[in-house]
Amino acid sequence: MFGFRRAATPAPEQPAHEEKKEAPARRTASEPSLPVPDSKKNNHFDDDDDDDDFFGKKTTLKKKSKADLDKMSNQELEDYAVDQAQETTKSVNNALKIAEDIRSDASKTLDTLHAQGEQIHRTHEKAAEMDKDLSRGEKILGNLGGIFSMTWKPKKGKEITGPEPLEHHDKHDKHHKEDREKLGLAPKGKKGAKGGPQPKDAMQKVELEKQKQDEALDDLSDVLGDLKGMASEMGSELDRQNKALDNLGEDVDELNSRVKGANARTRKLLDK
């Protein structure tokens, strides 16, 4: 009317649910597909309630929180304490079994080292016997060659004395005993836990488990002491064998030098 124009009516907006959806792009055969990780399978931070003990086995008893303990009755608390004591006894016995297995392997290794030392000793004894035979052969070669031939004297370096006396290891030593205490049983000289009266209440059961744990820990301490002694004996045996090998090598070098001299003397006699 006064020269103003009416604004154009805007087009109605389409609802969000009516927007045109684009079709997903089709994947070609050459395009690699990305695998979807399995959250349960590849979860390295699984925070479940099952705790692993230090032997890699699942514990059958779940630890209770303080709130759970407050809700338990006296009987349930007693049963829970007994179960915890029994689980601790199993863990100590497992540790003792592992230590026993390590001691058994260490005992076999120590026997192998002793056998190796005896073999080095026998080899050195053979070298000493060769020295005696070689000395007789050198004496015969020195007298050969005729009247006008000069007496041949072999060149000798160090004197071959043979191996040092070998220490005899007692096969009935504590490291070689086969009648070891079985796991879970009281060691000799101690009163076994199974010989007493059967516990009646929870407190007696817990005390019985503590007694079993103390006995197993005593056995574990003995095993660790054996392992320490065996490790020291292994080190001493290796040092002795290294020294024996050095002496054997020097004697073998001396024998090789004298054998070469005897062979040269023999060839010289054969050429005449």
List the helices and strands and how they pair.
Layout: H1 66-71, H2 74-143, H3 202-271
Helix pairs in contact: 2-3
Organism: Centaurea solstitialis (yellow star-thistle)
Biased composition (Basic and acidic residues): 15-29, 157-183, 202-215
GO biological process, one term: vesicle-mediated transport
Helical amount: 40-55%
Describe the biggest sheet? none
Q: Please, how many helices?
A: 3
Structural class: mainly alpha
- Low-confidence spans: pLDDT under 50, at least 5 residues? 27-37, 39-56, 174-192
Mean pLDDT across the residues is: 75
| Radius of gyration of CA atoms, rounded to a whole number | 42 Å
Strand percentage, roughly? under 5%
Indicate the overall shape. Answer: rod-shaped
Q: What's the end-to-end separation, in Å?
A: 151 Å
Strand tally is 0
Encode the helix/strand succession as letters. HHH
Organism: Centaurea solstitialis (yellow star-thistle)
Biased composition (Basic and acidic residues): 15-29, 157-183, 202-215
Family: Belongs to the SNAP-25 family.
InterPro entries: NPSN/SNAP25-like_N_SNARE, T_SNARE_dom
Characterise the protein shown here:
- The chain has helices at 66-71, 74-143, 202-271.
- The N and C termini lie far apart (151 Å).
- Mean pLDDT is 75; it is low at 27-37, 39-56 and 174-192.
- It is rod-shaped, with a radius of gyration of 42 Å.
- The protein contains three helices and no strands.
- By secondary structure, the protein is an all-alpha fold.
- Helices cover 54% and strands 0% of the residues.
